Amino acid sequence: MPSTETQYYNNPDLPWVVQKFGGTSVGKFLDNIANEVVKEYVKQNRLVVVCSARSGESKQNGTTNRLIRAANFALQPGCDGYWEELDSILKEHTQVAHDMIQSDTIRKSLIADIEHDCTKLTSFLKAAQIINEISPRSRDIIIGAGEKLSCRIVAAVLQDRGIEAQFVSLENIIDREFEWAGIRINHEIFPTGFFGIVPGSLLSTVGRGYTDLCAALTAVGLGAEELQVWKEVDGIFTADPRKVKSARLLPIITPEEAAELTYYGSEVIHPFTMEQVIRSHIPIRIKNVQNPSGAGTVVFPTDNISKDGTSSPHSPKILAENGYSLDLSRKYPTAVTIKDGVIVLNVHSNRKSVSHGFFAKIFSTLDRYGVVVDLISTSEVHVSMVLGVDSADKDLARVIEGLRSVGEVDVLQNMAILSLVGKQMKNMVGIAGMMFTTLASAGVNIEMISQGASEINISCVIEESCAVTAMNVIHDQLLSKRNKLVLPALKTSLE
Ligand SMILES: Nc1ncnc2c1ncn2[C@@H]1O[C@H](COP(=O)(O)OP(=O)(O)O)[C@@H](O)[C@H]1O
Ligand SMILES: N[C@@H](CC(=O)OP(=O)(O)O)C(=O)O
């Protein structure tokens, strides 16, 4: 039962809502999270709070990156860099405890927990250095310490503000299939975060931003009413609001569009999150910690399966108000996005093998080096591939060397993928033509074109230096509400 001093606690009669906070939000806006978000929402809901590892100003020097560095140092014989990284993580988290927590009892207990976690981790890395090995599973344990420390702080800050919160580690909730394996939840607010061992390893199977997936699994497991992903932007916009001043906030977006935007540069939400909750028909709402009263963006399925699994139209009114209609006749794409820092590899066959052999050799070479292809365009004797920024970390020279056995290879660096995304573009005859004419009129040279198999994405590759200009002209011409799109006339109207 809640203590007499506790003013805020989870009422078992209220529906579950899962709230996920990113590392920079925990780092910069912990007071907002406690006072303006959790305290407000717990009045109407039972809350689970899922947090990422703390970051300060940027994710670059955040706890997760420092833990990854520490693990790498531990693998260098005689290098005590890991100790320094862990010591700075310890000091930073302890400092937050001093700065944020007034109650002596709560602060002391938090600091003891932080010290305990950091000491354990130091011993773990010391042992790893001695045996000169860190298995994928051990690496997950090291990385997950960031979420644990963050959640310990958040739980203590919530307690300090009169909220009955309890730290729970979800290390054992995942079974092999990534499904919810069950956890007993009662009335408390549970700040959680790291979800333990995953098949393969966390970074290779899920990748960075994995806390979104943890939150999604929690929401699915509890049958939550809503999953809220709290960020430092008001929601998903028609383009990156930092780069396009006239970008508009989208009140709703479909899961397919949100996933496509994430894959192609607008990393607002981890794509696996969508799969999990949409399958369970739980809406995801993206909101701003600095503007909690804003409505945010709801990731809203346009299919017609309701939460209980029966078939019923999915609020056609909301869809219609936002420009989606069930016959997919909307006249606008949804958003434009850019993924920069990509590399284009063009491979011209040396014709020493039949075309399927040519493709097989290319893909087995990429597979050998774990290279992911973001976009591809092919003919029988030519393949153009776009490799993501992460590929630069792989041994690109050896990948290219491997590909040279099948043909000539040329490499274009500093390129960007520009993608126009929209569920309803499928029926917008002429939209691709308009996109490329608009780019041509702005003098943007197109290196490669690809239309996603999903039919909701038209992508092209351009030079990185023109990316922001290109995104702005596309936004002005194709996404601004002021310019209603005039597409080529059709025999049957799609209006
Ligand atoms: N279409 C888009 N809508 C909203 N944000 C976008 C979009 N494309 C790119 N972004 C960028 O994604 C970032 C996401 O928000 P933020 O809270 O800063 O991320 P994180 O939680 O990863 O720290 C913002 O900095 C924003 O500029
Ligand atoms: N801390 C992890 C997990 C995460 O989800 O982070 P964020 O929510 O801050 O993007 C990472 O950087 O990958």
Automatic annotation (TrEMBL):
Protein name in the entry: Aspartokinase
Source organism of the structure: Absidia glauca
Reaction catalysis annotation: L-aspartate + ATP = 4-phospho-L-aspartate + ADP
An example Gene Ontology biological process: 'de novo' L-methionine biosynthetic process
Keywords attached to this entry: ATP-binding, Kinase, Nucleotide-binding, Transferase
Gene3D superfamilies recorded: Acetylglutamate kinase-like, VC0802-like
Family matches, as Pfam families: AA_kinase, ACT_9
Residue intervals of the ACT domain: 420-495
PANTHER family for the chain: ASPARTATE KINASE, ASPARTOKINASE
Family: Belongs to the aspartokinase family.
A molecular-function term among this protein's GO annotations: ATP binding
Entry EC number(s): 2.7.2.4
GO cellular component term, pick one: cytosol
Superkingdom, natural source: Eukaryota
Gene that produces this protein: ABSGL_07416.1 scaffold 8789
